[in-house]
Specification:
The complex is a heterotrimer of chains A (about 260), B (about 210) and C (about 625). Helix content of chain A is about 35%, strand content about 10%. Chain A folds into two domains: about 110 residues, Beta-grasp domain (Ubiquitin-like (UB roll)); about 140 residues, Fumarate Reductase Iron-sulfur Protein, Chain B, domain 2, CATH 1.10.1060. The N and C termini of chain A lie far apart (about 60 Å). Chain B has one domain. Chain B starts with a helix and ends with a helix. Chain C has about 625 residues and is an alpha+beta fold. In chain C, about 35% of the residues lie in helices and about 15% in strands. A five-stranded parallel beta sheet of chain C has the order 5-2-1-9-17. The longest helix of chain C is centred in the C-terminal third of the chain and has 25 residues. The chains are: A alpha+beta (about 260), B mainly alpha (about 210), C alpha+beta (about 625). Chains in contact: A-B, A-C. At the A-C interface, helix 1, helix 2 and helix 3 of A face helix 3, helix 5, helix 6, helix 11 and helix 12 of C.
C-alpha cells in the first residue's frame, strides 16, 4: 500500500510549525499506524533527514504514551483503541492521511507530534490519591467493597491518561480525565476520608492549567481508547456540587 | 458579587449555574406557551389573560428574575466560550467527530445567537411596544406578516435544536446519569424541545394561514 | 573476589526481623538532610520514591517517559501473588517461598525469596489502602485465581490490567509526595552515567530529552529501578524505550552484573507478521487451558489449517508430554515450538508460528462458553491479525518478555558500589533462572515499599558521607564521558539507521542465545557481535544534533549499549554449561530433552566485573546453598 501523509512538523515548542507532505510506499496492511510511521522515519534517517518525532512506548494500548490526531480524530477512526492499536488495513491504498499532534493550550507541542501532558500530573498531585503511608495499611479484607462498586471503580481506573479526551473535546476540556480519577476513588470506601478535598482540589488544578469548559458534547467518551463513560463526569459534577456547597472548608485541609 | 465571580472562576460551578438558569428558562417557556395558547380562544380571552398577568403585583419581581436568568445564562456561556477558544489556540485541520456530538450540541452557539436576536426583536415588538392596550391585535398584526412569521418559525427551529441538547445536558450537569434512565432522559428532552418549539411556531403559522380566531 | 551477600544469620523465618532490628536508624530530623536519586518510576521506583519521601528523605525521581505513570510495569496483565491464603487452600509463606525457589530452578538466594514471601501479604494491604480496585467476590472480599503452575490460588488481580492498577497506585503515592514537595520529579530524562566519588555512588548524569542538555544531580544514594533488558532481542513484549543503559553504565562504574543470560521467553505471543514489526503482544497463558497446540506433520505444508486432516497434524506437546500435554511450563512450551519451527514445520506466511486450536473446545463447550472465558483475548487477536480465531486456529509464537538477570545486589539490595541500590527487574532478583507468573509485580513492590526504606537507612546511618555538589571532579568526569559518547555517535555520519542495527543484533541474539543455546552458536554470536558493533560505529546515521529533542539519538545510544551488553550475555551463557530454567544449553539435557542442571558446578550466581574497555570481564561467583528447599530435577512427561 502507498499513502500520502500530511504531517505537522515543528522543530521545538517555540518554533512555528507547518504541514509537510510525505509519500510512504511499501506499507503492509498488517502494520500498525506507528509502524507505518517507523517506516517513514527509517527512510528519512537513511537519507540523513530528521525523522518525525512522535511519542510511543508500550505499543499495546496500555501506557498512554502514544497520541496523534489522525484525519481529525484522536487515536484515529477506530473506537476503543489507541494509535498503536490502529492498523493500516483500516485505510484505503492511496489515501491522504492528515497527522497532527493533540492540540490544547495545556498540552504544548514539544516537537512535531509530541506534546507535553505534564498538566495531568499536576492535577493528580493536587489530589488524585488516597493519603496512605506505607506500612500503615489495615488488613486488605478488613473493609469489604461491594463487587458492583469495585467493578465501577475499575471501569474508571482503567484510564491510561493519554489525553485523547482533551484532544477530542471541542473545548479542550479535561473533564473526563479528572472525572475518571475522582470517580475511581469516590466509589471506594478507602477514598471516602478525602472525598471532598480531592474533588475541590482537582477541579481547581484543572482550571488553573487552562483546559476548556465541559459542554457535554461527549466526544471525550467517543475518543477514549478505554471507553470511559461520561457518567463519570456526571459523578464529578455531583461530587463537586456536594463538596462546594456543604464542605467548602475542606479545600485546604490535608495539606501539610 | 464576590460569589458570582467565584461561580465564574470554577468551570464546574459555572456550568451548573448555566444549566440551572437554562432549566428555569425552559420552565418559563412552558408557562409562556400556555399563555400564548389563549390566542386560539380569541381576542377577549387573550387580552383578558394579558391584563390579569399585568395586574399581578409579583410581575415586576418575576420580570427582573427572568431578565437576570437570561443575562446570567448568556453571560456565563459567553465567558465559557471565550475560555474554550483560549484553551485551543491552534485548531485542527478539519476535526472529525467520533460519535459524541449531535446537531444540537454542535450548533449551540449559532442557535444561541439566533435566539438572542429573536429575543431582542420579540421584546421590542411586544414587551416594549408603545401601545399595549390591545395586545391581541398587536400580535395578530405581526403574525400576518409572512417575513415576521418566517423569522419566528426559524427562531423556533433554533430553539428546538438548542433545547434538544440543552435539556438533557442540564441533567448530566446536575449529575443525573444512569445507564437505565439516561437514554430516556435524552429522548424525552428532544421530545420536549420539539413540542415546545412546535407549540410556539404553530401560533404564527396558524394566524398567517387562517387569519386568526374569529 | 568472593561476593558477600550479607545474609543475616539465624533461622530463615527470623532473618528479616532480626536484620531490621540490627540495621541502624537515621534520626528523623536528619533524614531531610539526605538527597536520594531514584531512576525509573515503575513499580519498584515509584513505590520506593513514595515510601522514602514519606520517611522524610528528599527524593528526586527520573523517568524517560513524559509521566512516571507510563513505566512498563503498566503492561503486566495477569496478577500479583501473595501468601494470604484467603481461599483456605493450603497456602503459606513457606509454600510461596518453596514454589518460587523451585520455579526458579534453584538459582536464587533462599533468604531473599523467603523475605519476599513474608512481605507479600503487606503488599496487598498497602495496595488496597491506596485504592487499587482488585477483583472481588460478591461478598465484597478479595478474589483470587490460580496462575502459572501453582497448586494454590494466590494471585490477586484487577481484570487483565493488574500491572496498570498497581502502578497507578504507586504513582498516586508518589504524586502525592510531589504535591507535598518531598519529591521532585524529572520526566523525559534519560540517565546516561553514574557518578562514583570516593568509592560511593553520589550522583547521576542524565540527558534532558526535550532540550538535549546534560544535567548532573548529586545525592547521598542512587536507586536504579530501570527494569529489564529484554529489548536486546529487538522483538520482545517490552516497551519500545526499555533499555539496559542505566544498569550498563553502573556496571562500567563498578557494579557487578549477575546472571545476564537468564531471560524468560513466553510461549503464547501473537507472532511476527512481517519485517516491519516493532513489538510482540502477549496473549495470556490461560489460553493453553483449552487450546491445542499443533503443526503439520509434513515440512513446508502450505495448506490452510482447516484442510489439513487430523492424521496429518502433530499435536507435539500432547505427544511428548502425555501427562501435562499443552500445560507444560513456559520454558518447555517455548522450546518445543522453536524445535518444530526449526524443522521447517512452522505455519502462517512467515512460517514462524504454531497453531493454537480451539476447534475441539468449541465443539465440546460451544462458542459462547469460549467467548465468555477468552472473549477479550480473541478480540485482541482478531484486531491485530485480522483473523477470526473462532473459525481458524490462532497462530502463536514465543517472545522474550522478562529478564531474571540484572545488577548483583546483596540482601540489602545494594550493588557492589556502596550507595548504589538496584530494585525490581533491574536487579538479578529473587527469581533464579525462571520467574513464576505473577511474581514480578510482587518483587517490584516488595523492594520499593518494604525493603529499601529499611536498608537504605541502614546504609546512610553507617557513617558520615562528605557533602558533595555537582562541582566535584567526578561529576565532570561522568558528564564528559556521557558527552563524549553522544558526540561520537553524532560524528559517525553513516547511512544506516539505529533500528536496523538493533534488528540485526536481535536476530543474532534470538538465533544463538534465545530459547536454546549451544556452544557453536554462542561462539558464533561472540564473533558476530563485535563485527556488528564495529559496523555500527562506522555506519550509523543520526540526523540532527545533541542539543534538541532527538529520538534517533536516544535510540542510537540504547542500541550502542545493547551492542556491548549482549556480548556479556553471550559470555555468561557460554560460561554456564548447564541448563536451568529459561537458560537451555543444548549440551546439557536429559534423555527426553529437558533442562538438566549441574548443581555440582553451577550452583552459583555468576556476577561479572568490568575490567576496562577491551579487557575480559572477571567472573565472580556467589555460591548458592539450599538448606530449606530440596534440590530436585523437574520432569513433566
Amino acid at each position: 500500500m502507498n499513502f500520502t501523509l500530511k504531517i505537522w512538523r515543528q522543530k521545538s515548542a517555540k518554533a512555528a510549525g507547518r504541514f509537510v507532505f510525505y509519500q510512504v510506499s511499501g506499507v503492509s496492511a498488517d502494520m500498525s499506524f506507528l509502524e507505518m510511521l517507523d517506516l517513514l522515519n527509517e527512510g528519512l534517517i537513511a537519507k540523513g533527514e530528521e525523522p518525525v518525532a512522535f511519542d510511543h512506548d508500550c505499543r499495546e494500548g496500555i501506557c498512554g504514551m502514544c497520541s496523534l490526531v489522525i484525519n481529525g480524530q484522536a487515536h484515529g477512526p477506530d473506537k476503543n483503541t489507541t494509535t498503536c492499536q490502529l492498523y493500516m488495513r483500516r485505510f484505503k491504498n492511496g489515501d491522504t492521511i492528515i497527522v497532527e499532534p493533540f492540540r490544547a493550550r495545556a498540552f504544548p507541542t514539544l516537537r512535531d507530534l509530541t506534546v507535553d501532558r505534564s498538566a495531568f500530573d499536576r492535577i493528580m498531585a493536587a489530589g488524585g490519591f488516597i493519603s496512605t503511608n506505607t506500612g500503615s495499611a489495615p488488613e486488605a479484607n478488613s473493609v469489604p467493597v461491594s463487587k458492583p462498586k469495585a467493578d465501577a471503580a475499575m471501569d474508571a481506573a482503567a484510564c491510561i491518561g493519554c489525553g485523547a479526551c482533551v484532544a477530542a473535546c471541542p473545548n479542550a476540556a479535561a473533564m473526563l480525565f479528572v472525572a475518571a480519577k475522582v470517580s475511581h476513588m469516590a466509589l471506594l470506601p478507602q477514598g471516602q476520608p478525602e472525598r471532598e478535598r480531592r474533588v475541590l482540589a482537582m477541579r481547581k488544578a484543572m482550571d488553573e492549567e487552562g483546559f476548556g469548559n465541559c459542554s457535554n458534547e461527549y466526544e471525550c467518551e467517543a475518543a477514549c481508547p478505554k471507553g470511559i463513560s461520561v457518567s463519570n463526569i456526571a459523578r464529578l459534577n455531583r461530587e463537586y456540587a456536594r463538596a462546594a456547597l456543604f464542605f467548602p472548608d475542606h479545600a485546604e485541609s490535608g495539606k501539610s | 458579587m464576590r460569589c458570582l465571580v467565584d461561580l465564574l472562576e470554577s468551570s464546574i460551578a459555572k456550568k451548573i449555574s448555566v444549566a440551572l438558569a437554562g432549566i428555569l428558562l425552559v420552565g418559563f417557556l412552558a408557562v409562556h406557551l400556555a399563555g400564548n395558547l389563549f390566542l386560539l380562544a380569541g381576542p377577549q380571552a387573550f387580552n383578558g389573560y394579558a391584563e390579569h398577568l399585568a395586574n399581578n403585583p409579583l410581575l415586576p419581581a418575576a420580570e427582573i428574575l427572568l431578565a437576570a436568568l437570561f443575562l446570567w445564562h448568556i453571560a456565563a456561556a459567553l465567558v465559557a466560550r471565550a475560555q474554550n477558544r483560549k484553551a485551543r489556540p491552534h485548531g485542527y485541520q478539519g476535526q472529525r467527530a467520533k460519535g459524541g456530538r449531535t446537531w444540537g450540541s454542535r450548533s449551540m452557539t449559532a442557535t444561541a445567537l439566533l435566539l438572542l436576536a429573536f429575543l431582542i426583536v420579540h421584546l421590542k415588538s411586544f414587551r416594549f411596544a408603545p401601545d399595549r392596550s390591545d395586545l391581541y391585535a398587536l400580535v395578530m398584526k405581526d403574525f400576518q406578516n409572512k417575513y415576521y412569521v418566517g423569522f419566528y418559525v426559524l427562531a423556533m427551529g433554533a430553539l428546538a435544536l438548542h433545547l434538544s441538547h440543552g435539556i438533557q445536558s442540564a441533567f448530566q450537569t446536575f449529575g443525573v446519569n444512569h445507564p437505565r434512565y439516561t437514554p430516556w432522559i435524552k429522548r424525552a428532552s428532544v421530545a420536549a424541545a420539539v413540542l415546545l418549539a412546535a407549540g410556539f411556531a404553530f401560533l404564527p403559522v396558524w394566524a398567517l394561514v387562517t387569519g386568526g380566531a374569529r | 573476589m568472593t561476593l558477600d551477600a550479607k545474609v543475616p544469620s539465624g533461622p530463615i523465618e527470623k532473618k528479616w526481623d532480626k536484620h531490621r532490628f540490627d540495621l541502624k536508624l537515621v534520626n528523623p530530623a536528619n533524614k531531610r538532610k539526605y538527597d536520594i536519586l531514584v531512576v525509573g518510576t515503575g513499580l519498584a521506583g515509584s513505590s520506593a520514591a513514595a515510601s522514602l519521601a514519606q520517611l522524610g528523605y528528599n527524593v528526586k525521581v527520573f523517568c524517560l517517559q513524559d509521566s512516571p505513570r507510563r513505566a512498563h510495569s503498566i503492561a503486566a496483565q495477569g496478577g500479583i501473588n501473595a501468601a494470604k491464603n484467603y481461599p483456605n487452600d493450603g497456602d503459606s509463606v513457606w509454600r510461596l517461598f518453596y514454589d518460587t525457589v523451585k520455579g526458579g530452578d534453584f538459582r536464587s538466594r533462599e533468604a531473599n525469596v523467603y523475605r519476599l514471601a513474608q512481605i507479600s501479604s503487606s503488599i496487598i494491604d498497602q495496595c488496597v489502602a491506596l485504592g487499587v480496585p482488585f477483583a472481588r467476590e460478591y461478598g465484597g472480599l478479595l478474589a483470587n485465581r490460580s496462575f502459572g503452575g501453582a497448586q494454590v490460588s494466590r494471585t490477586f488481580y484487577a481484570r487483565g490490567q493488574t500491572g496498570q492498577q498497581l502502578l497507578l497506585g504507586a504513582y498516586s503515592a508518589l504524586i502525592r509526595q510531589v504535591g507535598l514537595g518531598k519529591v521532585q520529579m524529572f520526566t523525559r530524562r534519560e540517565m546516561l552515567d553514574l557518578v562514583v566519588a570516593d568509592g560511593a555512588a553520589r550522583g547521576i548524569v542524565c540527558r534532558n530529552l526535550v532540550t538535549g542538555e546534560l544535567e548532573a544531580y548529586s545525592g547521598h544514594a542512587v536507586l536504579l529501578c530501570t527494569g529489564g533488558y529484554g529489548n536486546m532481542f529487538y522483538l520482545s513484549t517490552n516497551a519500545a524505550a526499555s533499555n539496559v543503559t542505566a544498569t550498563w553504565r553502573a556496571y562500567k562504574r563498578g557494579a557487578y552484573f549477575a546472571n545476564p543470560c537468564f531471560t524468560q521467553i513466553h510461549p503464547t505471543c501473537i507472532p511476527v507478521t512481517g519485517d516491519h514489526q516493532s513489538k510482540l503482544t502477549l496473549m495470556s497463558e490461560s489460553l493453553r487451558n483449552d487450546g491445542r497446540v499443533w503443526v503439520p506433520r509434513k515440512k513446508g505444508d502450505t495448506r490452510a489449517p482447516e484442510s489439513i486432516p487430523e492424521a496429518e497434524r502433530d499435536y507435539y506437546l500432547e505427544r511428548k508430554y502425555p501427562s501435562f500435554g499443552n500445560l507444560v511450563p513456559r520454558d518447555v512450551a517455548s522450546r518445543n515450538a522453536k524445535q518444530v519451527i526449526d524443522e521447517g514445520r512452522g505455519v502462517g506466511t512467515t512460517k514462524l508460528a504454531v497453531y493454537l486450536d480451539f476447534a475441539d473446545a468449541i465443539k465440546r463447550m460451544g462458542e459462547n462458553a469460549i467467548r465468555e472465558k477468552y472473549g477479550n483475548l480473541f478480540d485482541m487477536y482478531e484486531h491485530i491479525t485480522n483473523e477470526n480465531p473462532y473459525k481458524t486456529p490462532m497462530r502463536i509464537y514465543p517472545a522474550v518478555h522478562y529478564t531474571m538477570g540484572g545488577l548483583w545486589v546483596d540482601y540489602n539490595l545494594m550493588t557492589t558500589i556502596p550507595g548504589l541500590f538496584c530494585l525490581g527487574e533491574a536487579n538479578f532478583s529473587d527469581h533464579g533462572s525462571n520467574r513464576l507468573g505473577a511474581s514480578a509485580l510482587m518483587q517490584g513492590l516488595a523492594d520499593g515499599y518494604f525493603i529499601i526504606p529499611y536498608t537504605l537507612g541502614g546504609y546512610l546511618a553507617q557513617g558520615a558521607l562528605p557533602e558533595m555538589g555537582t562541582d566535584h571532579p567526578a561529576f565532570r568526569q561522568s558528564e564528559n564521558d556521557a558527552r563524549g559518547r553522544i558526540d561520537k555517535i553524532l560524528a559517525v555520519g553513516g547511512k544506516q539507521t539505529p533500528a536496523s542495527f538493533h534488528k540485526r543484533l536481535g536476530a543474532i541474539m534470538w538465533d544463538y542465545c534465545g530459547m536454546s543455546r549451544g556452544e557453536t552458536g554462542l561462539r558464533k554470536a561472540l564473533a558476530e557481535i563485535p563485527k556488528l558493533r564495529e559496523e555500527f560505529w562506522n555506519g550509523v546515521s543520526v540526523p540532527g544534533s545533541g542539543e534538541e529533542f532527538n529520538q534517533t539519538l536516544e535510540r542510537a545510544g540504547r542500541v550502542a549499549d545493547f551492542l556491548e551488553f549482549s556480548e556479556l550475555v553471550v559470555k555468561d551463557a557460554l560460561e554456564r554449561r548447564e541448563s536451568c530454567g529459561g537458560h537451555f544449553r543444548e549440551e546439557s539435557q536429559t534423555p527426553d530433552n529437558e533442562a538438566k542442571r549441574d548443581d555440582a558446578n553451577f550452583s552459583h550466581v555468576a556476577a561479572w566485573r568490568y575490567q576496562g574497555a577491551g579487557a575480559e570481564p572477571e567472573l565472580c561467583k556467589e555460591p548458592l546453598e539450599f538448606e530449606h528447599v530440596h534440590l530436585a530435577q523437574r520432569s513433566y512427561v
